[in-house]
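Worked example 3. Consider a protein that binds D-glutamic acid.
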Amino acid sequence: MRAHPVAVFDSGLGGLTVLRALRGRLPKEDFFYFADTRFLPYGDRPEVFLRERGVLIAQALVERGAKALVIACNTATAAAAEAIRAVVDLPIVALEPGVKPAVALSKSGVIGVLATTRTLDSERFQRLVGNHAQQHRVIAQACPGLAEAIESLGPDSPEIGRLLDAFVQPLAAAGADVVVLGCTHYPWVAEGIARRMPPGTTLLDTGEAVAKQLERLLAAGDSLGGGSGLLTMATSGAPQQAIVTVDRLFGAKIHVEHWEP
Ligand code: DGL
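Given these inputs, the predicted complex is written out as structure tokens:
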């Protein structure tokens, strides 16, 4: 019998930065990755749309036989994690910007957060800052257009350079010494971000923490392992385009099927 996979989803292929960490830590798991590319970018969509879409996707993933769910998208977490937890009875790992570890690392007391407009506007993000960063100055910088540009143009395009100039400069000017990558697409442009910050700036992404949390949950439910590292991928957009983008970002030619939850 085929092992039940861990399902991972994002608005697109940003969640591959999380998948990389998951597969590195948990080589005995099978994974099913779903990119909801038809609706990329999530970052500019209304919260109610994202909540309904998130629940629909999560339920469809349960029907596909998933044994656990990773919401590899900060925006979908902010809008839909609670609604998904209310209806889906699986171990769920949801991502949120690493404000808490950033507070522990910052010496200047100034933290930069790069994320989508929807994530930064969410109640969940406001709570995160209120609970963990009250003594710090948090520069929350929305990055409209960046996730789509990473997917459609690739991390090294001149357009990305222009976007990063605009989004990263305010963090450097404010004296941030830690930059939280609060969208799973942004680790793909980490080099470009680091180049625009003073030397020694720490960039934080949450891939490793998510992998550890998934391992803990699977172990607690006695469902760790049992697979063979198989990766299956699907998109609600155009599979051919996804194959090219996955190859460009991930450095691997992987079959991507079309799937509409
Ligand atoms: N990758 C997503 C995140 O972590 C969102 C990108 C988007 O679709 O706007 O927030």
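Take a moment to read the result before moving on. Residues 10-12, 14, 40-43, 73-75, 116, 119, 147, 183-185 surround D-glutamic acid (CB under 6 Å). The chain has a mean pLDDT of 96.
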